[in-house]
Amino acid sequence: MTDVLRTAIAASGVSQYRVAHATGILATSLGRFMRGETSLRLDKADALAAYLGLRLVADPDARPPEPTPENLARPMLAKRNAAPTRPPRAGAPPK
Q1: C-alpha span between 38 and 21 (Å, rounded)
Q2: Is the pLDDT of residue 86 over 90?
């Protein structure tokens, strides 16, 4: 997404100063972003995309990853809800 934004800004023919002024982004922040020194907050990227007429769309060929405890947003909850990995103690009543 950052490469798309950088390319669209450069191809727009509008100065970085004017893009920054029109979107409410500091010109210094936009300059650092364009040089690859920093990233932008999502709200700033949204403002740039709206100004440049860009939108984020789903790739119909992309497949989301299968959910696993490692890639879930709350891995500790997944571990807590997972089946026990230890065998029951000897003499313990079955569940």
Answers
A1: 19
A2: no
